[in-house]
Amino acid sequence: MRTLISTAFISLDGVVEAPGGEPGYRNSGWTFKHTEFLPEAFDIKAREQQEATAMLMGRNSYQAFSPVWPDMEDFADYKVMPKYVVSTTLGEEDLVSNWGETTILRSLDEVAALKRTEGGPIIVHGSASLNQALADADLIDRYHLLVFPLLLGAGKRLFSTTDKDTQKLKLVEHEVYANGLQKNVFDVVR
Protein backbone atom coordinates (compact mmCIF):
# COMPACT_ATOMS: atom_id res chain seq x y z
CA MET A 1 0.00 0.00 0.00
CA ARG A 2 1.23 3.49 -0.86
CA THR A 3 1.88 6.03 1.89
CA LEU A 4 -0.30 9.14 1.86
CA ILE A 5 1.58 12.14 3.30
CA SER A 6 -0.11 15.39 4.27
CA THR A 7 2.34 18.29 4.16
CA ALA A 8 1.52 21.73 5.48
CA PHE A 9 2.75 25.09 6.60
CA ILE A 10 0.71 25.51 9.78
CA SER A 11 0.39 28.18 12.44
CA LEU A 12 0.66 27.19 16.08
CA ASP A 13 -3.13 27.46 16.34
CA GLY A 14 -3.68 25.11 13.38
CA VAL A 15 -4.39 27.51 10.51
CA VAL A 16 -3.17 26.49 7.05
CA GLU A 17 -5.06 28.98 4.88
CA ALA A 18 -3.19 31.21 2.38
CA PRO A 19 0.40 30.68 3.55
CA GLY A 20 1.88 31.73 0.21
CA GLY A 21 -0.12 34.88 -0.45
CA GLU A 22 -3.39 33.61 -1.94
CA PRO A 23 -5.82 36.55 -2.19
CA GLY A 24 -8.93 37.12 -0.13
CA TYR A 25 -7.62 36.24 3.31
CA ARG A 26 -6.68 38.76 6.00
CA ASN A 27 -3.37 37.05 6.86
CA SER A 28 -2.46 36.04 3.32
CA GLY A 29 1.24 35.27 2.90
CA TRP A 30 1.83 34.76 6.63
CA THR A 31 4.69 32.29 6.16
CA PHE A 32 7.21 34.90 5.05
CA LYS A 33 5.75 38.13 6.42
CA HIS A 34 6.42 37.48 10.07
CA THR A 35 9.15 34.82 10.21
CA GLU A 36 12.76 35.24 9.17
CA PHE A 37 13.59 32.99 6.20
CA LEU A 38 16.11 30.26 6.99
CA PRO A 39 16.71 27.94 4.01
CA GLU A 40 17.51 24.92 6.19
CA ALA A 41 14.02 25.04 7.70
CA PHE A 42 12.59 24.29 4.26
CA ASP A 43 14.88 21.37 3.34
CA ILE A 44 11.96 19.02 3.90
CA LYS A 45 10.18 20.59 0.91
CA ALA A 46 12.96 19.55 -1.49
CA ARG A 47 13.02 16.10 0.09
CA GLU A 48 9.25 15.74 -0.42
CA GLN A 49 9.60 16.40 -4.16
CA GLN A 50 12.38 13.84 -4.46
CA GLU A 51 10.60 11.12 -2.46
CA ALA A 52 7.00 11.55 -3.65
CA THR A 53 5.84 9.65 -6.69
CA ALA A 54 2.45 11.38 -7.05
CA MET A 55 0.65 14.48 -5.82
CA LEU A 56 -2.92 14.62 -4.55
CA MET A 57 -4.91 17.81 -4.05
CA GLY A 58 -8.43 19.17 -3.86
CA ARG A 59 -10.04 21.33 -6.52
CA ASN A 60 -9.31 24.68 -4.85
CA SER A 61 -5.62 23.90 -4.40
CA TYR A 62 -5.38 22.57 -7.94
CA GLN A 63 -6.91 25.77 -9.27
CA ALA A 64 -4.49 27.85 -7.16
CA PHE A 65 -1.34 25.83 -7.97
CA SER A 66 -1.87 24.84 -11.62
CA PRO A 67 -1.49 28.34 -13.13
CA VAL A 68 1.76 28.93 -11.19
CA TRP A 69 3.63 25.76 -10.21
CA PRO A 70 4.21 24.28 -13.71
CA ASP A 71 6.57 27.14 -14.61
CA MET A 72 8.34 27.44 -11.24
CA GLU A 73 11.79 25.92 -11.04
CA ASP A 74 11.28 25.32 -7.30
CA PHE A 75 8.55 22.80 -8.20
CA ALA A 76 10.16 21.19 -11.26
CA ASP A 77 9.97 17.66 -9.83
CA TYR A 78 6.20 17.99 -9.40
CA LYS A 79 5.76 18.88 -13.05
CA VAL A 80 6.68 15.39 -14.21
CA MET A 81 4.94 13.32 -11.54
CA PRO A 82 1.33 12.16 -11.83
CA LYS A 83 -1.20 14.43 -10.17
CA TYR A 84 -4.61 13.49 -8.79
CA VAL A 85 -7.35 16.02 -8.06
CA VAL A 86 -10.26 15.05 -5.83
CA SER A 87 -13.33 16.90 -7.10
CA THR A 88 -16.94 16.27 -7.94
CA THR A 89 -17.18 19.44 -10.04
CA LEU A 90 -13.91 19.76 -11.98
CA GLY A 91 -14.02 18.61 -15.59
CA GLU A 92 -11.27 17.41 -17.93
CA GLU A 93 -11.57 20.74 -19.75
CA ASP A 94 -10.54 22.51 -16.51
CA LEU A 95 -7.14 20.79 -16.38
CA VAL A 96 -4.04 22.66 -17.52
CA SER A 97 -2.03 21.12 -20.34
CA ASN A 98 1.48 22.08 -19.17
CA TRP A 99 1.66 20.24 -15.83
CA GLY A 100 1.90 16.61 -16.85
CA GLU A 101 -0.50 13.76 -16.29
CA THR A 102 -3.50 14.74 -14.14
CA THR A 103 -6.38 12.46 -13.15
CA ILE A 104 -9.63 13.54 -11.52
CA LEU A 105 -10.83 11.36 -8.66
CA ARG A 106 -14.50 11.71 -7.75
CA SER A 107 -14.54 10.20 -4.25
CA LEU A 108 -12.53 9.15 -1.21
CA ASP A 109 -13.15 5.56 -2.31
CA GLU A 110 -11.11 6.34 -5.42
CA VAL A 111 -8.36 7.80 -3.20
CA ALA A 112 -8.39 4.58 -1.15
CA ALA A 113 -8.11 2.58 -4.38
CA LEU A 114 -5.17 4.75 -5.49
CA LYS A 115 -3.41 4.01 -2.19
CA ARG A 116 -3.75 0.28 -2.90
CA THR A 117 -1.84 0.58 -6.20
CA GLU A 118 1.87 -0.07 -6.66
CA GLY A 119 4.20 2.86 -6.23
CA GLY A 120 5.77 5.20 -3.73
CA PRO A 121 4.46 7.96 -1.50
CA ILE A 122 1.65 10.30 -2.48
CA ILE A 123 2.00 13.87 -1.19
CA VAL A 124 -0.97 16.13 -0.38
CA HIS A 125 -0.31 19.88 -0.65
CA GLY A 126 -2.75 22.55 0.51
CA SER A 127 -6.29 21.21 0.36
CA ALA A 128 -7.53 21.88 3.90
CA SER A 129 -11.01 20.43 3.32
CA LEU A 130 -9.58 17.39 1.53
CA ASN A 131 -7.08 16.81 4.36
CA GLN A 132 -9.90 16.84 6.89
CA ALA A 133 -11.94 14.36 4.84
CA LEU A 134 -8.90 12.12 4.29
CA ALA A 135 -8.12 12.10 8.03
CA ASP A 136 -11.76 11.36 8.92
CA ALA A 137 -11.65 8.42 6.46
CA ASP A 138 -8.36 7.21 8.04
CA LEU A 139 -6.46 7.57 4.75
CA ILE A 140 -3.54 9.75 5.91
CA ASP A 141 -0.43 7.83 6.96
CA ARG A 142 2.01 10.64 7.78
CA TYR A 143 2.09 14.38 8.46
CA HIS A 144 4.97 16.69 7.48
CA LEU A 145 4.32 19.90 9.40
CA LEU A 146 6.31 23.11 9.40
CA VAL A 147 4.87 24.87 12.43
CA PHE A 148 5.21 28.66 12.41
CA PRO A 149 5.42 30.55 15.71
CA LEU A 150 2.26 32.52 14.93
CA LEU A 151 -1.31 32.62 16.19
CA LEU A 152 -3.52 33.58 13.25
CA GLY A 153 -6.88 33.19 14.94
CA ALA A 154 -9.16 32.67 11.97
CA GLY A 155 -8.77 30.62 8.81
CA LYS A 156 -9.05 27.12 7.44
CA ARG A 157 -7.54 24.53 9.72
CA LEU A 158 -5.70 21.35 8.81
CA PHE A 159 -7.43 19.12 11.34
CA SER A 160 -11.07 18.15 11.36
CA THR A 161 -13.41 19.08 14.19
CA THR A 162 -15.37 15.84 13.74
CA ASP A 163 -16.17 14.16 17.05
CA LYS A 164 -14.22 10.93 16.74
CA ASP A 165 -11.99 8.63 18.73
CA THR A 166 -8.48 9.73 19.66
CA GLN A 167 -5.97 9.37 16.83
CA LYS A 168 -2.48 8.63 18.09
CA LEU A 169 0.52 10.00 16.23
CA LYS A 170 4.16 8.96 16.58
CA LEU A 171 6.80 11.67 16.24
CA VAL A 172 9.44 10.24 13.89
CA GLU A 173 11.43 13.36 13.03
CA HIS A 174 11.67 16.85 14.48
CA GLU A 175 13.85 19.91 14.47
CA VAL A 176 13.61 23.44 15.82
CA TYR A 177 15.17 26.33 13.93
CA ALA A 178 16.59 29.67 15.12
CA ASN A 179 13.61 31.56 13.64
CA GLY A 180 11.16 29.59 15.78
CA LEU A 181 9.94 27.22 13.06
CA GLN A 182 9.46 23.61 14.07
CA LYS A 183 9.59 20.64 11.72
CA ASN A 184 7.42 17.82 13.01
CA VAL A 185 6.99 14.57 11.10
CA PHE A 186 4.34 12.27 12.54
CA ASP A 187 3.30 8.78 11.52
CA VAL A 188 -0.34 7.91 12.11
CA VAL A 189 -0.55 4.99 14.54
CA ARG A 190 -3.15 2.37 13.61
Automatic annotation (TrEMBL):
<dbReference type="InterPro" id="IPR024072">
    <property type="entry name" value="DHFR-like_dom_sf"/>
</dbReference>
<dbReference type="Pfam" id="PF01872">
    <property type="entry name" value="RibD_C"/>
</dbReference>
<feature type="domain" description="Bacterial bifunctional deaminase-reductase C-terminal">
    <location>
        <begin position="2"/>
        <end position="182"/>
    </location>
</feature>
<protein>
    <submittedName>
        <fullName>Deaminase reductase</fullName>
    </submittedName>
</protein>
<dbReference type="InterPro" id="IPR002734">
    <property type="entry name" value="RibDG_C"/>
</dbReference>
<dbReference type="InterPro" id="IPR050765">
    <property type="entry name" value="Riboflavin_Biosynth_HTPR"/>
</dbReference>
